[in-house]
Amino acid sequence: MEHRSSMYRTVRLLRALGVSAVVAGSVAGIALAERIAAELQLAGADPETSLLRHDRGAQAAALVQAGVPALRSVRTASLTEALTWAERRALPAYVLAPAAAGVPVEPVVCERGLQISAAWPAMRREAARHAGDTHLVLTEHLPGRRYVVHSVSRLVDGQSDHVVTDVWAETRTSGGRLARTDLMNRHHLLTRALHMYVLRALDALGVVCGPVTSRIAYADERGPVLLSALAVPATSVADKALREATGHDRLVDALDSVIPPAPAQLIPAPTGNRVVRVHLHPGHSGHIDPWTARILRRLPTVAAVSEDLRSKTPATPPTGTEIVLSSSEPHAIEGDYRIIRALERNCLYLAAADSAPRPFERPT
């Protein structure tokens, strides 16, 4: 069914269907899902605080109030207020981003007020277009590694029980572009530190049940600090490799958090494999060469590729092109990673003049 505008009509139809759980399927649906759950008297977070599950500014304020380490920040729709806040703090650098997390707008690092002023109008327009909210968040810029932590929460004896399912470490190029994302060993001390921090953050954000994707910054002198959290299940081409490595399936976990699984349900035995997501960044005029893509797909540790790497004709790569590597042998993954980067530099992308479909004569 489709929700149009009448909450009464939507709730009445869902109640007639016997709906017993509500899970947000997208960032735009978080507030609606929580309102519907409340109207149906189902388990869920307080809809009056739904900003805490998807808004950077609201999240930072809630963490500070709960005594959990957080970035210094201001959430505002006023450029003057943002500049005044930055002038009072006199920090080395700032990050300007939409208040609504999950929108396809990249945060911008600014060192001075002039840079904040220059980036403000375009980012405010994009925030309004994608999220319907003109509020932006200006935070301190915290140098250091970035991590993505996936968790799922469920009600146990009336209390929220948070479980971290997987933690990923991001590696970026010198220009700031995402190069690879590595699944971290759950026994690593840093993984445990991120794990414990996220558990505290989830309580502060009022998470009751369901999945949450948290982005964390880590600096040696500060420890882990939340950048943003989204209460939706995150899926990717790496899901099958993740399930085999850890035994966790994100969509299944999301449903199990609100609909308890059968007691006899089998849990797949995790392999413990190392998993790496390799992110590609084609040029604006580049098209993927199907012959080179075929070579990439046949590398020993390749477990999955994005759809544009499967095309039999030169394809225009969208954002999010990636290759998933999985193996119990780390050196095998690193070997294939070096091959992928070498092919990317030399022959994965066709020049604009070669992008039209034509017969290929390269050896297979």
Automatic annotation (TrEMBL):
GO terms for molecular function: ATP binding; ligase activity; metal ion binding. Residues 60-259 form the ATP-grasp domain. It comes from the Bacteria. Keywords: ATP-binding, Ligase, Nucleotide-binding. InterPro entries: ATP-dep_AA_Ligase (IPR052032), ATP-grasp (IPR011761). Coiled coil: none annotated. PANTHER family: ATP-GRASP ENZYME FSQD, FUMIPYRROLE BIOSYNTHESIS PROTEIN C. This is ATP-grasp domain-containing protein. It comes from Streptomyces paradoxus.
